[in-house]
Amino acid sequence: HGLLDDIRGIGSAIALTPSGKDDGLLTAEEILDMKINAQLVVLSACDTGRGKITGDGVVGLSRSLVSAGVSSVIVSIWSVPDAPTADLMTEFYQNWQKQPDMAQALRQAMLTTKAKHPHPIDWAAFTLIGES
């Protein structure tokens, strides 16, 4: 689950499973300290594209991942339902295997998911940031 919490000062974070002394939150600030060599990171969870809006754009998980070395990030900009999201992500990965253009693979996955789940809440939340 993606979080945006300016009240406690953690900013953007993704909730992972806590263990031991780790609270399970991976914050945008923590990601900035990492070196990540990845072509793509997909944050297929609710609200992972949200962040603090500044004059330079949205500061959040996606910007932190790109700053840490990730070429492209797929995030959601609102809460996403489980079943349609699973369909969309399955379609995306199948499309991406067939052709290397991530933007086209995501677009086609959205269109296919839209045919099965016509409400935009179900298929339109995800966006690609970075290289296609």
Proportion of residues in helical segments: 25-40%
CATH class: Alpha Beta
Number of distinct helices: 5
Main sheet strand line-up: 1-2-3
How far is the N terminus from the C terminus?
25 Å
The CATH architecture term is 3-Layer(aba) Sandwich
Whole-number total of structural domains: 1
Query: Based on the structure, what is the oligomeric state of the protein chains?
Result: single chain
Q: Major sheet: size, sense and barrel closure?
A: 3 strands, antiparallel
Number of strands: 8
From the helix content, strand content and strand pairing, which structural class follows?
Answer: alpha+beta
Topology-level CATH name: Rossmann fold
Radius of gyration, taken over Cα atoms and rounded to an integer in Å: 15 Å
Regions with pLDDT < 50 over 5+ consecutive residues?
Answer: none
What is the averaged pLDDT score? 91
Proportion of residues in β-strands = 25-35%
User: Order of helices and strands, N to C?
Assistant: EEEHEEEHEHHHE
Shape: globular
